[in-house]
């Protein structure tokens, strides 16, 4: 699984012109799922995302997590994160998981993040044409790949 995590002061996702998910201060997370991803990737990323210390403490040092600040999470599925650009100029999405694999993992990821955060998270809708708006606070943007745990 690949995620792009952005610290936001606000974010929302619209589907067919209607707001499907909206948060104030917290994290907007884009997730791309690969065929070989599984429950271990979900557990590892959930722990990483909820406890990632990228919010300022009272001294202005990034020392607090989304959980610490009582922030929210907006999770958006994005298969294009699995793009391979090795050949030519047209990205290949062959590594992106198909619906049969990706949908159940996406739903487990939602549940896992909600449970670890201690409240419901906001989401888009898997496979939908979505319009995402956000104000990146910082900017702070972090990319994590569960298959490359640096």
Task: State the main characteristics.
single chain; 150 residues; alpha/beta; D-tyrosyl-trna(Tyr) Deacylase, Chain: A; six-stranded mixed beta sheet; two-stranded antiparallel ribbon; 2 helices; 8 strands
Structure, described:
Strands 1, 2, 3, 6, 7 and 8 form a six-stranded mixed sheet that branches. This protein has a single domain (2-145), classed as D-tyrosyl-tRNA(Tyr) deacylase (D-tyrosyl-trna(Tyr) Deacylase, Chain: A, 3-Layer(bba) Sandwich). 32% of the residues are buried. The chain is 21% helix and 37% strand. Strand 1 and strand 2 form a beta hairpin. The chain has 150 residues and is α/β, with parallel strands linked by helices.
SS summary, helix count: 2
Annotated CATH topology: D-tyrosyl-trna(Tyr) Deacylase, Chain: A
CATH superfamily: D-tyrosyl-tRNA(Tyr) deacylase
Principal-axis shape: globular
Termini Cα gap:
14 Å
How much of the sequence lies in strands comes to: 35-45%
What structural class is derived from the secondary structure elements?
A: alpha/beta
Question: What is the total number of structural domains?
Answer: 1
Helix-strand topology string: EEEHEEEHEE
* Count of beta strands: 8
What's the Cα radius of gyration? 15 Å
Tell me the name of the CATH class: Alpha Beta
**Largest beta-sheet characterization:** 6 strands, mixed
What is the helix fraction of residues, given as a range? 10-25%
Instruction: Report mean pLDDT, rounded to a whole number.
Output: 96
CATH architecture: 3-Layer(bba) Sandwich
